[in-house]
Every structure is written in C-alpha cells, then in structure tokens.
Please model this.
Amino acid sequence: MNSLNKELIALNKESNAEQRFSTDGQGKIQHSVWDNDLHFETDEDGFNFISTGDLRYPVEIVSHHQNDYELLMNGVSYNFSVETPFSIRRKKLLATQASESTSIRLKAPMPGKILEVMVRTGDSVKAGDTLLILEAMKMQNAILASTKGVIKKVHVKEGDTTSKSDLLIELEKEA
Amino acid sequence: MKTKDKINSILIANRGEIAIRIARTAQKMGIQAVGIRTQKEPNAHYLGQMDVILDFPEREKNQVPEFLDIESLVLLAKRNQVDAIHPGYGYLSENADFAIRCTEEGIVFIGPSPRIIQNMGDKVVAKQIAGKAGVPMLGSSKGSVVTLDDATVIASQIGYPIIIKASAGGGGRGMRIVRKESDLKQMYLSAVSEATLAFNNPSVFIEKYLENPHHIEIQIVGDNFGNVIHLGERECSIQRKHQKLLEEAPSPALDEELRKKITGAAVALAKEAGYMSLGTVEFLLDKQKNFYFMEMNTRVQVEHPVTEMITGLDLIELQIRVARGEKLSLKQSDIKLKGWAIECRINAEDPQSGFSPCLGVVKALRIPKGNGIRIDSGVVAGSEVTPHFDSMISKLIVHADTREEVIEKTLKALSEFQIKGVKTTIPFDKAVLRNEVFRSGDFDTSFIEKDMDSLVYREEKEELLAAFFAAHHYAEQHQTPSLVDNDEDAWTIRNRLNFK
Amino acid sequence: MKKSYEQFIARQELLKKQYDEAYYEKQHKRGKLTARERILLLFDEGTFEETDAYTPPANASFGKTVKAFGDGVVAGFGKVNGRLVYAFSQDFNVLGGSLGSQHAAKIVKIQDLALKTGSPVVGLIDSGGARIQEGISSLNGYADIFKRNVLSSGVIPQISVIMGPAAGGAVYSPALTDFIFMTADTSYMFVTGPNVVKEVLNETVTTEDLGGASVHGTKSGVADFVYNDDENTILGVKQLLSYLPSNNLETAPVHQKDVSKEKTEDRLRYIVPEDPDKPYNVKEIIELIVDNGKFLEVSENHAMNIITAFARIDGHSVGIIANQPKVMAGTLDIDSSVKAARFINICNSFNIPIITLEDVPGFLPGTDQEHDGIIRHGAKLLYAYTNATVPKITIILRKAYGGAYIVMNSKGIGGDFSFAWPTAEIAVMGPDGAIAILYRKELTEAEDPAALKKELTQTYRDEVTNPYIADEKGFIDEVIDPALTRSKIITCLDALRRKTVLRIDRKQGNVPL
Model:
C-alpha cells in the first residue's frame, strides 16, 4: 500500500453503506469517526474476538477472495468489499454500463436435489411462475421466475445435486 | 402387550441430541444405553454417550433411511438381546407398525400401545375420541382424503381457508394452507408428495384453518392402570412454516381458569383413549380464547425440556417407568409449576437467507453455563453437519422465576453461545427475545411474519466492527512482510551455475 | 549556468503540464488508473526511478509543444517490498499507448538492465497496439521485445499485467512471459479483434466475450490471474513476486515461520471420506498444511480439476499441485495436464520446491480428449515432473490409478519423497474395472453376481490397492498419519534444501508440445 491509498472504504454489499478508514500503509487503520483502539485476540478454543471499549464480539471469516469478505460477527453475516475512493467510482461506472444487460441468472438458494424441472429453453414465463422444484432437508422449495421473460438456458436436470449458488436457470428479461 | 418387570437395556432408534438425552436417563436408572451407528455419520457425537454401539448393516443408496427401517431395527434389537426400543421423536416414534413388530418380537416399545398409536395417529379416530371426551374441535374431513376430487368437495364443505396435513406425522411436512379453490390442486399434490417423502405415507386429511391462532400444547403422562395426569402447558406459537423455533412454559396466553379448562380437556381425552406413556395434546387458541383440539402426539417432543424445567421432573424417566409396567407414583396434586422456562432451538440454518440449511463442520463450540441453564447438544467441536439429517444441532433451555427474568437470562446465554464453522439461528432467537410484541406475551402464530422487523438481531456497533475487521484484514494482507535471512550455501549456488 | 538551468526547469514544467488534471480524469472516467498511478502503486513509496521520461516519439519535431513526452510508456525501476524490480507501464492517454520505435526502445532498455542485474520485469499493458504511422519500425520494436522475453525466459521472472487493450502482435510478449494478470471488465486480449472477425466471419462478438478477463481466466486459461480492479491487480502482482526469487540463481525470500500451527492437525484425518466415491474439497487440506492457511492460486477458474498454487511452508516458498476431487472427480484431462505442466516448469526455473497432493482416478476418457491429443498433452505433464530438479514431494491422499499415478510425480520418475495416507489406493485401475476384467468368467457364472462383486472388491482393496504394499516394495517411503502431514513435509523440505541434480549436456530436450 502506498501514497495512492491512504483511504480504505469497507462497502457493505447488501446495504451499500460505506465505512471509511484511513491507513498508514503499515497495516494500521483508523476509522473516520470511531476513535477507540481495536484489539484482536484468539482464545484457546479457536474463537477470534474483536474488542473495543467495552464491546467484545466473536468474528469469523467465512470466505474471502481478493477484496471481498464474507464475515460472521455474533453469528450474523456481513458481506463487505474493501475499496478505495477510486475503485468505488469504478464500480459505479461499470454498474451503469451493466444495467443495460437484461439477463437474469437464477442460482440455487441452498444445496439440494433437483426434483422437477418445469420449463425448457425458449419457454415464456411470467413473474411468480414455478420454474423448478429443489428438494433440501426433506422440504420442497419452488424456484420462481422473478420477472416476465423467456428461458434462455436451463443448466440442471432432474436428479442433479446442486450446491448453494449453483447456476440453475438463465432468464432473458422481457421489457 | 407384554410388559417386562425389568428393562436392562434400551436400543435408541434415533440420533443427535435426543439420543444423548435418552441415554443419560437410561444410564441414571442403571439401564444400558445401546446406540446405533450409521455410515452417514460414523463419528457422530451421540455415539460417545452410549454404553454399546451397534453398527447398522451396510445399505444400498436408495434403501429406506436407517431410522425408518422397521425390520432392520427390530432385528438389531433381537439379535443383540436388547429389552426395549426407544424411538425418540420423529422417524418411527408414531408408527404403529413399528410398535407392533417390537411387541411381536418380545421387545418393549417405549411409548403407547400400537392400538393407541393407531387411534391417535388416525386423525378421524382421534377426533371421534375427542368428541366422546367432550373436547371442542374444528371442522375437518372425516378421514384421509384420497383423491383430488374428494379434496375439492370436502374443502368447499368445510369452507376456505383450509389446511391439508399429513396423517402420519407433523413438523410442518406435508402441510399446505389453501385459501382459495384455484390453489387446491397444486397444494394437494405437493402435500401428498412431501408426506410420502417425509413419512413414507402419502395419506393426508383436511381441516378448517384458523388465521393466526395460538398454538398451545398440554403434556400428559399415563400409566397402564388408567391414571393420567397433566404436566402443564407449553406455548409454541413462535413458528415458521409450521416448524417450531422457540417454546416456553407456561404460556403467557393462559390464566388459571383457562389453564384448568384446557388441561382438563387434555386429560379427559387421554383417559377416553386409554392413554399410557408420554403424550402431548395440541390445541389451537383463537382470538376469543376458545380452544380447539388439533391432534395428539404419541411421543416425547423436542420441546419437552421446558416442561421438565418448570416441574422438576424427568419425563424420559417417567416414560420408561410406565413402559415397564409401573404405576404412576405422582398424583395431579403433586404437580407444581414453578417459574418460567424458554427453549431456543439452535438450527444450522441461515436466518438471513430464508433459513436455508448450512452444511459444514463445527470448528469450535462454546456453550454457556450456569444455574438454570441447560444445553442439549447433538454436536461438539469436530462434528459434521450433513444434508442427511435434520438441521437442529442444539437446544438451549433456560429457567428463571419470572418471564421477564428468563428472557434476560436467555439473551445472556445466547450471547455466550458460540459456534464456529456453521451459521445458526442464534441471532434470530435474540431478535425474538428482544421483540416488544414477544415480551408483552401477546403474540400468535403470525408473530414471525408480522411482528418482526428484522429476522436477526444486530448488536451495538456490530456492522462498524465487522467493517473494521475486514478493512484491517485487507490492510494486513498487503503489508510489507518481515523477512528472515536466507543464506544461500556454496553447494547449491555452484551447482546452479553449472546446470544445463 | 543560470540560463541553462532555467531551460532545464522549463522543460520540467512542460512535462508536468502533460500530466495535468485532465490527463488523470481522462483515464479515471474509463474506470482505469493512469500509467503513472499504476507504476507508483507497484513500487515501494519513494523508490521509483523513471527512465527516459522525456523521450518523444520518433519523427517528432523539436521545439514544438509535444504532448507526447515518454512516447506512451512510463518505464523505470524501484523496489517492490525491498527488492529491485524493473517495470514499464503503457500509457493509454498518450498516443493511445501505441508502440512506436522509441516506446519499444524504452522497454528494451529496462529488459536489458533487468537481465544484467538479475531482476524481475513487470509489464503493465494498456495499449492500442503497433503505431500504424511508424510501420515496420514499430513491428521491429515488438520483435526486439519478444527476443528479450525469450532470452530472459527462465532466468528472471517476467510478469505481464493486462490492464487495458492488448491486441494483435502485442499479445505475444505476454504470452512469452511467465505470468499473465488481467483486470476484470476493463482489459482484453486477442490476436484478431471483433471488427475483423465480423468482416471475415460475419460473427458479431463483443471485446469482452472475445478476449475479456472472464474468457481468459476460465475457458482459454491464458490469464493466470484475474483481479477485480486496477489496484487489486497491482497488489496481486506484488503478492506473486513475494513467492518468486529475483533470478534463477536465488531462492525466494524467506518469511517468518508460522508458529501458530500445531505439530498435529487432527482435522486432516477426517477430510477425506471413507467412501472412495465421495468428493471433498482438497483446498481444505491445503489450508491446513501451509503457513497461515494462505495460498495464491494460479489459474483459479481454469481447469479446476487441478489446483496449482504458491504457498509458504515454514516461511519458504513452495509450489502446490493438487488434484481436486470436487471437480470431474479429479481426473486429469488436457487442460489440467497443461496447466500443471506449465506450473512445474516455472517452479523448476525458479528453484521452488513442488509439493504434490494426489487423488486421481485416471485420465478422462472419450473421443474429445483423444482427438484433441490427450496423449501429447498428458506427456507434457510427465515430462515436466521428470525434468524438474527442484525438491519434489508427493502425498497420495486417496486414489492413484494407472498412468495417472506414474505421471503425478511418482518415485519412479524422480519424486524425492512419496508418502501415502491410510486412505490411499494405489493400483493399475480401480476395483470396478479390475474385477470386471480379471473375474469376467466368474461373475457371469455366479449365482449372485452382486454379492460376489462386493466380496471381490473387498479382497482387491485388501490385497492390491492398499498403500502398505507399495510401502513394503519401496515405491512409497511411508504410510503416514494425515495429522502429521505438515510436519513431515517440513522435515523433508529441510533435508532436500541443498538438492542438486547433474545432467548430461544437451542443447535442449524435445518437450512434447
């Protein structure tokens, strides 16, 4: 890290809220508002804690890739990407370019087995139509079309096992 | 039904926390606890509690799941000369065929007799018995509804909204609410298929559906001599898609008078049925405080610990005693309900994504301790949460003198309960306990849907600290590393200069 | 002196004017950093020394306000995490970053210096291609660069970072270097662009779909690394450099040991399932073995049935190769063979020991693979392993069947140490295939073929595939407790640190291509 990046921004990917920090390039960071010192500790059972003032919470990194983080704090998920002022601007730029895209990718909300596929490539569907049934934990989950459109591609077939976030169906949005 | 005077060993036809629970009581009573190991989780935590472990014979991929395999289970008990089988909850606990096979082979089935299981399991017969006992009920189909056409007729007779339920079991599986006729076909067919999947039995029945009732259940226990007593009620209205998530005893919705009426009805029903062993009579309470009999569960329930906490009794012990032919030593007047108890079901599910199941390994576990705090846990550090079984991994049960106190005590216990490696419903439980409507005690089964702003509770400054952690971690990754001196030795350099 | 000094300052001011606000904004509007910003991000603060900042394009006239100081590239040297590195950063804002003869000369200069001093070269590519006006001179500029890429190959690490367009001949320099980075969404590389594709083949395709990071990071495997944006890309380059030495006579810098790891890691005993057909994620094993659970994966999304990654063990840089049972059951196919072979070659060039985690049921069968030349490409992997003279350690986690067993760094071809976990199964082929062939007659005549097959499978497992047989015959050094894998590797690496192998002189081996 050097002079270009004296500022880091933790972007909450769900709420788009930004938390700003300044960094000295040596790994020490300071929040723009919160003054207190931070402490990190790991106890003998393997739990990581972050503490400041009289708050002390367990925190766990579920996954991280480049600057994307999925954290669990007190068992609650947070998805952040660590950005700089420049990269936030770049993100916004690319987002405006991409919103012209009309393709929707439906992913598996949980791991399970494909029980039934109701649609084929080329079928027209409307919002709320059941596209396929995913069985998980002995319950059946209907995967619905989020908007009106045409089925572009079905990536799974009956009997397939899927993991969470696997691509199930690509849908071309209709205006 | 043959009763033995002595039960020396019990085969526990179940897994997870309930298997541990049953084993504990059995061992306390000097009875050998025999557990079953499946290939799906050969290193499961519950096996550590058992005196003897039997391996389930090898099976093909599409065979009936282990704990639903009647013949294999009976054979295991017989071959190993085990005196009794305890089915726990779920699986075959309300399967009359299983109870019959046990009895045929001279094995004590720890539960009611096959006849009672059949009767109470048959929603039609159960309602007949309730009618005879003078217990109030809702309109329903007279028996199971075998065809879609029948369903259509019956549904319009009873009047929408109606609910389709699986005859062979509960837990929300095979259950569908239908508000208008046009939805009936799809709901009926999917209810039947889900029921077949969960209970190996496609049979469903139809009932009038009450919007947003209270769900109250009464714990009863009976012996073989016609004695039946009740052990108070449980409040189970905190449900999501008909799955209970948080229970308490007693219920804030009942006053003494109502309690007397409901428990009276429950005992009357049980006596009319000739009930023995543990049982739970479920009622729905409408806005006008009228109660209606729903069904009777002829097994020990997941949430039995809250009753244990307020009565000071060991329900499994009662169940075993009664099963070996003892007379109930307690009279109704002996039963005193003291204090208040809450149970949080800790499921490996993500409340932030529609409670989807979380699979993985429990990397670390820390459970709260203290007076009035009880943990029934199916996992320990190193346990794997697999898709083969239910997602409930632990139960937190807390007892205190008053409802206000037990809520605060439970919140404290939840913040001390830490699991690393899988997401759980703990933040959800916190959100429930902090909710004003919940705290007022005036909630019904629509609570989760209507009264919760957020399905997870976020502690003070949580987001800020999480952001801090992410930014700190990132900055640390990209620090200049500290190096160690690397003396290259002569041999290596010489040969690198010479290599081809 | 005063007048000439004033002239000197005036020229400096002209240079500053070129790099004004508008210069930065123009590039930022594209979502990209400028060439100057990128190269400054790469080097430690205050260490960047620019060369030839004032060089104008060839054929430029003197005295005019030439807004083309530098000829479209910023070149120089500095320290990256304390080590001398040479770099150039093409400037899309200046003459479209196009390569003219002076532009090329600047690059060539630092390539020469890097080779003389045994330092890595990092090229930040963001260029419109050859400068049409300069004709053959610019083409020759490319030739000069390519020649040096080849002469430096395997001598100093060369890293290409595609941060904008790279088209036509310009892609060959990166292709000749050791690693290619691409920035997602704002970079692309192809030999022939969409316009010509449309003209000649009447096929409409966007730059992203033809040669964007999403394509090269996955399908073609041309890009070894894809990062979200410019800054993360540069940070990624720095991370990669930390695993490599500055030249082929050195070893990579050694970091502090990871003292937090225990000698035994119980969890390793439970990751590989008892059922040999059940998949698992080998990355969980890698995390438990390497320092701080950290590793840098090369070609993460291409040929995902094999993992190639840099990591550190006890502070020393190592290369990890692991079959991934979660993807295609971990079989070897064309893409994975080539991916691993390339990785081995780089490790070999730069004295990085190779740790192989093996769980491979064989090569992927089928006409597609055969017709596309799995024979040739599989041979590449075999050649690479056998040829490498760095320390080579293999741990067989589960399956190791047939040709794939030999190929994955078996002792026979030159592996230094081969260990097996108790779950290992080493054989010519798996039980299903073997029993079908050896007992065909008995199975057809049997009363209960399924039961017989089950019995024979167990016998096969007991008598043929279990790792103790290989241990006794010496083809495995030891069957080890999985919990002690890391400790074992550390001990062996220590023992092999001075390993050298002498070979017979030859101009070059005939590597299968």
Observations:
- The CA atoms of residues 106 and 169 of chain A lie 5 Å apart.
- Chain A has a mean pLDDT of 81.
- Chain A touches chain C at residues 1-5, 25, 66-68, 81, 84, 86-87, 89-91, 93-94 (CB under 8 Å).
- Chain A has two domains: 6-94, 103-173.
